[in-house]
Amino acid sequence: MRLIIVDAFLERERQIQSGTVGAQLDVFEQYRVPRVDYCILSHRWTGNEVTYEEMRKLTKMDSRDEIRSRAGYQKVLRSCEQAKRDDFKLLWVDTCCIDLLNGPETSDAINSMFQWYQKSKRCYAYLHDTSWFLRGWTLQELVAPRDLQFFNKDWVGIGDKRSLAPKLAEITKVPLCILRDGLSSYRPSIAQVISWAADRNTTRAEDRAYSLLGLLGVSMPTLYGEEKRAFLRLQLEIMRTSNDQSIFAWKDSTTCDTRWSSGVLADDPSCFRDCHDVIKMEPKDLPGGIGMS
Taking Cα atoms as reference points, which of 41, 40, 38 lies closest to residue 90? Predict the structure, then answer.
């Protein structure tokens, strides 16, 4: 796991502002999780983020002033400043801590991301606008962290997950007990989890499936270019590792996209929109001695 060294990042920024840039400071370091304490950023991606290479080589780049003026860079800077105030030495930000040009690294990060948010000591949710609640990736970033602090567009704190849980449950349909105590407090059915993502959107069609991996407790290779087939692969992987038959509780309706496949599996998470109350029943709980083979 590649993390930003908070003090090194802030020192480099101070040097750039004062015009006293010396030897290039290393602002990243590799660590094994959970051997170190770190905080983590949750945010909505925009079109002007900063990449790993840009962040790593910033002081040597002719375009460094343009890079530093981007909203994406400012998010990282403000996150580091908040981390410093909270006495954290390490910070993870997806846009620049993952080398997105490295396919295996990106796939590994996508499969590990839920755990990284879950194991963080604190998560900062930056709400530039309300679209944070509509994005596919931010669902796991809402559920996974135990300590989740919300900030508005001016980086003013507006509350934490526990205190805001009733309102968050109303907005997101995620049960109150899970927002307060995590997935370990109550293991929802497969259909319930997918229903929380029914009305969320992602830029890439594949991410409709990939953003659910950690929430559903499965891993699989990422294959950008497969588009909606990613959600079919996700369901097949769930069936391979789980006996939760709520995966078949979806319904094809006018609210779902036009079907491109046929069979017992759904085309899209939106087909699970009405599955908020679908629970998983164990074979021993089925009436009349009905069992599962």
Answer: 38
> Distance between CA atoms of 287 and 276, rounded to whole angstroms?
23
Tokens for 143, please give them.
Answer: 């559920």
Q: How many helices (H) and strands (E) would you count in the chain?
A: 13, 7
Looking at residues 74-91, what average pLDDT do you find? 98
231, 208 contact by CB (below 8 A) = yes
CA–CA dist 190, 271 (Å, integer): 13
According to DSSP, residue 165 is labeled H
By DSSP bridging, strand 39-42 and strand 28-30 are unpaired
Q: What is the 8-class DSSP label of residue 130?
A: G
Q: Each residue of 201-240: pLDDT tens digit?
A: 999 999 999 999 999 999 999 999 999 999 999 999 999 9
Please report, to the nearest 10 degrees, the dihedral formed by the alpha carbons of residues 146, 152, 156, 161 taken in order.
Answer: -20
Cβ neighbours around 111 below 10 Å, total? 17
| Digit-coded pLDDT (tens) for 153-169 | 999 999 999 999 999 99
What whole-number distance in Å separates Cα of residue 5 and Cα of residue 79? 12
Q: Which pLDDT score, from 0 to 100, does residue 292 have? A: 43
Q: Is 7 exposed, middle or buried (0-12, 13-18, 19+ CB in 10 A)?
A: middle
Which of 129, 148, 154, 162 has its CA nearest to residue 40? 148
Contact (CB, 8 A) for 78 and 124? no
- Across-strand partners of 89? none
Residue 245 φ/ψ, nearest 5 degrees: -85, 0
Q: Do residues 151 and 126 lie in contact, with contact meaning Cβ atoms separated by under 8 Å?
A: yes
Residues 221, 47: Cα–Cα separation, whole Å = 26
Does the structure show a pLDDT above 60 at 69?
yes
- pLDDT tens, residue by residue, 235-272: 999 999 999 999 999 998 655 554 555 589 999 999 99
- Under 8 Å between Cβ of 121 and 39: yes
